[in-house]
Amino acid sequence: MREALLGSRTCTDVAELSDLIYDFSVASWQPVSLPLRLFAVGLVAAAGVGAWVLPRASSARGPQSQLRAGLCAEQGSHARALATDLTRDRAEEARRARLEAAVRPMPDLTQTAQDLALPGGGGSYCGPVAVSNAIAGWAAAGQHSLLPDAHDPRAAQTTLVKLLGSARYMGTGVNSGTGAAGLMVGLERYLRDRGFAATLQYDGWRAHPQRFSSGRRTPSAEAIRTAFDAGSAVFVNIGWYQPSPRVAGVYRRHGGHWLTLVGHGVDAAGEPAVDVLILHDPAPWAGAEGARHFARFAPIADDGWLITESGPFPSTGYHSLDGVLVKHPGDVAIVDGVVMLSIRPRTNSPT
User: What is the rounded CA–CA span in Å between residue 181 and residue 237?
Assistant: First the structure.
């Protein structure tokens, strides 16, 4: 009732209301019955001022001024609360808008999802799944021929994952997963089969065909952001490394994982954050499908060493990816490489 009386009224309106209450409570106070007296007290209480403003057997206008001031103060307090709520709501809407504007729409399949029915349960299929997310996103945006025919988008993407992981394309192994070379060669071939020309570029140390090399052995967040903003799909290959328990700055690699970049430039709260990368992670430990992971490049020791299957080399220039969920306790996710992909329809093929 208080909001109905005060919420949309000016202080002039409230002054008129105070006159009404005053006239009722003074001019008619003595003759009226007890029920009407109680109604007057209730009206004042509902308006948000205490019963102390009711005149006490006095015809002076002082109590009316008190009543008017009390009602105006209550109306002002209510308006300030509404303004605070409105400001908070607008700030939250702006944060949500910044976050959505920073993210490129695409699916987020989990590689071990039962309906995918991947070889070995999908445990080594992070590469094909990560790539399929970006391709399915482009297909949904209009490049429909990127996907195989199916009765719905998820079924089409499921077929795509199986094709990408097959021997004709990436050659994903149930135990060995997908290397950088296999991912790029297979992706280039798949896109050619679908009528698209692919431009692939690789930053990183893992073995790959020279035609894909950028010449940069150490991936950088700046190159990732630049490629993404130019419209490229970006796939981040992290290695799982365990720090040496005996020698500081030494990390031993024991596996790897592929992620899909979906955006950058804002944090999980929607606040601007230039160094934040937003990722989809196909791993089963990464949470429900549709989860976004907010991560940053963080430098590791320049005087350290990375021990890999290709031999040891200095850690200078390499970064961990802080903010992603790791496979095993104690793991450090170090960025081994980045694949950047842009596509265009072949001139003799339909889109």
Answer: 12
Measured in whole angstroms, how far is the alpha carbon of residue 238 from the centre of its chain? 20
Cα–Cα distance measured from residue 319 to residue 334, given in angstroms and rounded to the nearest whole number: 6
Quote the CA–CA distance of 284 and 185 in Å, as a whole number: 26
pTM of the prediction?
A: 0.76
**pLDDT tens digits in sequence order for the chain, 351 residues long:** 444 444 444 555 555 555 555 554 454 444 444 444 444 445 444 444 444 344 443 444 565 566 566 656 666 777 777 777 777 778 888 888 989 999 999 999 999 999 999 999 999 999 999 999 999 999 999 999 999 999 999 999 999 999 999 999 999 999 999 999 999 999 999 999 999 999 999 999 999 999 999 999 999 999 999 999 999 999 999 999 999 999 999 999 999 999 999 999 999 999 999 999 999 999 999 988 888 999 999 999 888 999 999 999 999 999 999 999 999 999 999 999 999 999 999 876 544
